[in-house]
Amino acid sequence: MLGLAVESWIWYGVAVTVAIARLVSRTLHFGSPKRLQIDDWLMVFVLCVYTTLIVSINIVADVNTNLLPPGFDVSELTEQDIKQREYGSKMVLIVEQCQCISVWTVKLTLVVMYHRLTIARKENTAVKLLAGYIAFGFIFMEIFYLGVWCRPFRHYVSHYWAVPTPNIQCSAAINHLITNAVFNLSSDLIMLGIALPMFIRSELPLKKKMILCCIFGLGIFVILSALLNKYYSFTEPFGSMWTFWYVREVSTAILVANLPFTWTLLRRIFNLRSFDGGSVVLNRWEDRYRETIF
Question: Which residues form the Rhodopsin domain (predicted)?
């Protein structure tokens, strides 16, 4: 099994390469970077946060935190030990925020794409409701994480990195992880429930449908990763397996959000035909699909 440093940077290289290919492809499609759309710029923001996540999570893997095992004698900690654990706890806070922001911003980019594809279609109402649910979930999760479960700031000292912390929610973050899992998994399932039937019912050729369904089917692996990172967070809180699944979830989500937008670049490089094959008369939705993604 690869170590976290090796695996995380491999994922990072693949995800960033595909994201850059998306931006280049979209620039070629529109003719200028100035014409890139809001979801393209959101992806640039995701890459910045994602980079911070990868750097931070590799630091977290090698430091101790204020999550102490039962029966741990805090009096044995030296001042240096406490400072190191405070630093590790701060890095965990950064990792958690970067993971949440990355995942939810990727969801937002996909919702923007779904909205363009479903204008004047009955699915558009579902997309709007999904957008509201995703926004509500993120706001609810952040308010409770930063202001309710732990109440981080008291007398200018945060309990999130206090050693020891008076509240287990400040170190183990059990309530936050449950809240995160509920909103994250449910919104992912809804997104799959909208996307896959929409592509299956389209009039694109079978081969093209299969390609798109496989790309968005990677969302199943995203859901699996989200389940496993929470599983290991609860069952092995002092282990490092949760860090691997954090990286896998965010990286795969970035791939899902960017792969459909790379066709223009691939077509230029390999001299491929247009995605619709040039022989199929597309209906209005397929025209909009081609304009939106390619």
Answer: 22-268
